[in-house]
Design a protein that fits this description.
This protein is 29% helix and 23% strand. With 391 residues, it is α/β, with parallel strands linked by helices. It folds into 2 domains: 167 residues, NAD(P)-binding Rossmann-like Domain (Rossmann fold, 3-Layer(aba) Sandwich), CATH 3.40.50.720; 114 residues, Dihydrodipicolinate Reductase, domain 2 (2-Layer Sandwich), CATH 3.30.360.
Length: 391
């Protein structure tokens, strides 16, 4: 089901990138991508062309306009889909139909059938699909993976993850879409945790879940619409049991209903435990040696070059040129979506276990020297001075 380009592209030089969606998260992507020499951000499109124009001016991007205009540009090879979850599949299919490779914000789609259509369209056109989150490429999680693979906690046995907070309605100026199908704590934050689970522990084979909704309406807490009430259409608290193909078992909470803010990804092995920095690209790993009778945690600093939002886009762009596998690729994204949908199905059925029928391999590790800012494909000579100046 993974789309591959095979031997790579005969074209050399930086990959032309266009963004569809000029919302809040586009700032983070644009900051990261403008510092990367293997890509060139050439355009931004949005249904609100004024918002696209403002982002283009702010970040020094030469083109802004509508989606059709951006997709018609021959110099844009890769589209970064930053639209709301409800239209992720629709926009990705439109971009693939225009012959563009696609990186999508999470989730890949809202359901399995739509996700399969995206991956099949990419495969039929020999195009690549990548998907957020790319935090698993960060030096924090990669350091945790190196410690795990080196046997520092022995064979992994159990997992405990917690993501608790009051929800984004208090700070986000337009939070409504985060309480619609395809979002909520499960689909908005869950991909970070589930992708990290697969990165470290391999594929999931079954889930069992219960859901809860503390209230049916919420109030926008900031911005021009502060005080406006909107409906809640998804569960805002889920408790999940997860079984991995390896035999590891996990317990997770995903909640927008808690005044207590807590993030934890704790993996216990037969001779120790790891606390993984799941919430960002960097951050230390905490290590507990099971033989240490003081039961004290030690800190292992993150090792590797700094990485940020857009690292996965750069990895995808390099794969376009080289033919290497995409680390955050379609197979992984589909499996993560399958896990999330299975959790939702289990919660809707009152906790009935649901088998996860898809699978995905653990993405290959990122070497410590891997740097999304560096040029690794043959640069265009006329662009090198300009891009060095950007950095």
């Amino acid at each position: 089901m993974t789309a591959r380009s095979g031997a790579g592209s005969a074209v050399q030089g930086p990959v032309g990138v266009g963004l569809i969606g000029a919302g809040n998260i586009s700032d983070e992507y644009l900051t990261g991508l403008r510092a990367a020499l293997d890509v060139r951000v050439l355009g931004i499109a949005d249904l609100d062309t004024g918002r696209a124009a403002a982002q283009a001016e702010r970040h020094g991007v030469p083109f802004s306009g509508g989606v059709t205009e951006l997709l018609s540009r021959a110099d844009i090879e890769l589209v970064v889909n930053l639209t709301i979850p409800a239209v992720h599949a629709e926009v990705s299919l439109q971009a693939l139909g225009a012959g563009k490779h696609v990186w999508t914000e999470k989730p890949l789609a809202l359901d399995r059938a739509a996700a399969r259509r995206v991956l099949e369209a990419a495969r039929d056109r020999s195009l690549l699909v990548g998907n957020a989150p790319d935090t698993v490429l960060g030096e924090g999680i990669q350091t945790s993976q190196a410690l795990l693979d080196a046997g520092r906690i022995g064979a992994p046995q159990t997992l405990l993850t917690l993501m608790q907070g009051p929800g984004p309605d208090g700070w986000h100026p337009r939070p409504q879409f985060l309480f619609e199908p395809g979002a909520g704590p499960l689909f908005d934050i869950g991909p970070y945790y589930v992708t990290t689970m697969v990165q470290l522990l391999g594929p999931v084979v079954s889930v069992q879940a219960l859901g809860h909704r503390a209230r049916d309406e919420r109030v926008i807490g900031s911005g021009p619409d502060a005080g406006t009430t909107f409906p809640v259409r998804v569960d805002t608290h889920l408790s999940v049991l997860t079984t991995f193909a390896s035999g590891v078992v996990g317990t997770s909470i995903y909640s927008f209903d808690s005044p207590q803010r807590r993030q934890l990804f704790e993996l216990t092995g037969d001779s120790g435990a790891l606390r993984v920095p799941v919430s960002g690209f960097d951050g230390p790993t905490e290590l507990l040696d099971g033989e240490d009778r003081t039961h004290s945690w030690t800190t292992e600093p993150a090792r590797g070059r700094p990485r940020s939002r857009g690292a996965g886009v750069v990895d995808l762009a390099r794969a376009i040129r080289t033919g290497d596998p995409v680390r955050c690729g379609g197979e992984l994204a589909y499996h993560v979506l399958d896990v999330l949908v299975s959790i939702e199905e289990s919660a809707s059925a009152g906790g009935t276990p649901v088998a996860v029928t898809s699978t995905a391999g653990r993405p290959r590790p990122v070497p410590p020297e891997w740097d999304p800012r560096h040029a690794t494909v043959t640069p265009e000579p006329s662009q090198t001075p300009e891009r060095e100046a950007d950095r």
